[in-house]
Write a structure and sequence with these properties.
2 copies of one chain form a homodimer.
Chain A lengths: L4 H8 L3 H9 L7 E2 L5 E2 L2 H15 L4 H9 L5 H35 L5 H9 L4 H11 L3 H11 L3 H23 L7 H17 L5 H13 L1 H10 L3 H16 L1
Antiparallel strand pairs in A: 1-2
Helix pairs in contact in A: 1-2, 3-4, 9-10, 10-13, 11-12, 11-13
The first copy, chain A, binds a DNA duplex through helix 2.
DNA sequence: CTTGACCCTGACGTGGCGTCAGGCTGTTGC
DNA sequence: GCAACAGCCTGACGCCACGTCAGGGTCAAG
């Protein structure tokens, strides 16, 4: 069985131009051409297109989709698992937004007005879906990642909110220490770092001091993590990083 | 209270460049400039930005967002109702995709392969969210929708007072039931809760039992809503919350 | 009075296609 | 046996919603 561009386009709900584009950039290439130069897609091409569309829907840039799909170590089942998790993330986020809108409606009805922070809450601290994707890419074959996956999968919404509240708390105290001029290698800062490490261990995976030190380095080396902390307070990424590494040295 | 671009950007989780862009195209303009030319956003500007971000998240092109928000016939409540519906559409679509991925996983596990039609089903008959906006315009032709739209959008002062009287009535009867020792999970209390739900559905938006249950939880979790009910009678927030949730459970 | 974070306005770049333009192919109907 | 028309091809340019410098002004802290 094979399909022409037009047929595949109708089937998949995209335009012919989109398929041309994907061919051009090498993302989804027809496995054959007719003698007249017509594109001819087979079942394996459909497979691939389906994967591409799902990742695209989840907000991945096409180039990243390509590297994901061309990774020889990632089998189809792994992609499905990842997509499943990402979709569930999106579900959660969307229901948070529904809840936010409902809250606004009720507030309006009662003549209450929400604080600005509350109103942007649902937009604010959202880490893009690609973040999760890359996190898996880096840690995908470690035992730590598997542990984290198992634990978070079993987490209810309330669990998750509780975990988030805890880490927000530590982050806020880090920010306060930074603002208060507490040195990153002071005992107080190291104690905060230790608390941070134990949180990770409790909720996600066994995080040894050395592993934790590695994380600390990443906070300043990986721009996405840096951005996350910098949005809480300027200089916080470096501060947390230093405190975490000082703590790791102390423990070692 | 006013905000600079940077502050607003952090608050809303967007970049400064985005705010510049929105200013340039006239989508969200700071209501003032300092003598030095700095943008200065006030609370009304935040309102607008929040609406813009929600519509953007839902996939509307910015130009369309502008015409939506600048429509003098559409009040804030109408926007919230529309956003609520669009978000619920997205929820539905996302869970359909989750189901599709789960189906694929299971099929793979059992060595079955799905038909191409099956596999693109979830993409295929999906028309982007902006289409839902158009769907509303279509539905706008039916009497029921148009009536409910007009009723709330163009609610006169008397209408509003009548609606308010209705909800005051239910609230008073809740207070009386509480004072009379009627249990929150009794049939009488649940009937009151049901009346409350139907009021919301009639006057504001489609409020399913589950949505209503969510509201109920908020009455005790959000201090401002709690304060609203507590001012009518001490213990009323918890009482209404319990009754609403008992009713939701009864309906489910 | 300097430093460093923050602000300004251009101006160009980019991703993911949409939209012609100009021309070849393949099937159906007469 | 050929006309007509739907469908395919390859450029090439356009567009949206910003990202990313460049070059320069502003402001609060020390």
């Amino acid at each position: 069985m094979s399909w022409t561009v037009g047929e595949l386009a109708r089937l998949a709900g995209v335009t012919v131009r989109t398929l041309h584009h994907y061919d051009r950039i090498g993302l989804v290439r027809p496995s054959e051409r007719t003698s007249a130069g017509y594109r001819s897609y087979d079942a394996r091409d459909l497979d691939r297109l389906q994967q591409v569309l799902l990742y695209r829907e989840l907000g991945f840039p096409l180039e990243e989709v390509a590297t994901l799909l061309d990774d020889p170590d990632a089998d189809p089942a792994a992609h499905l698992r990842r997509q499943h998790r990402l979709l569930r993330d999106r579900l959660e986020r969307t229901s948070a937004m529904v809840a936010a809108v409902e809250k606004e409606m009720e507030a309006r009805q009662m003549g209450i007005s929400l604080t600005p922070e509350e109103r942007f809450e649902v937009f604010g601290d959202w880490l893009p879906e690609e973040y999760a994707g890359e996190a898996e890419e880096r840690w995908g074959d470690t035992e730590a990642w598997a542990q984290s996956q198992r634990r978070t999968a079993a987490m209810s919404k309330e669990d998750w909110l509780r975990v988030k509240a805890e880490s927000d708390d530590v982050e806020r105290r880090f920010a306060a220490a930074l603002a208060g001029g507490v040195p990153a290698d002071s005992v107080a800062a190291m104690d905060l770092a230790e608390e941070h490490r134990q949180q990770i261990s409790r909720h996600f995976y066994d995080c040894s001091p050395e592993v934790h030190g590695g994380l600390g380095r990443m906070y300043v080396e990986d721009e996405r993590f840096t951005a996350y902390y910098e949005r809480i307070a300027p200089g916080l990424a470096q501060y947390v990083s230093s405190a975490v590494q000082a703590n790791a040295a102390r423990q070692g």
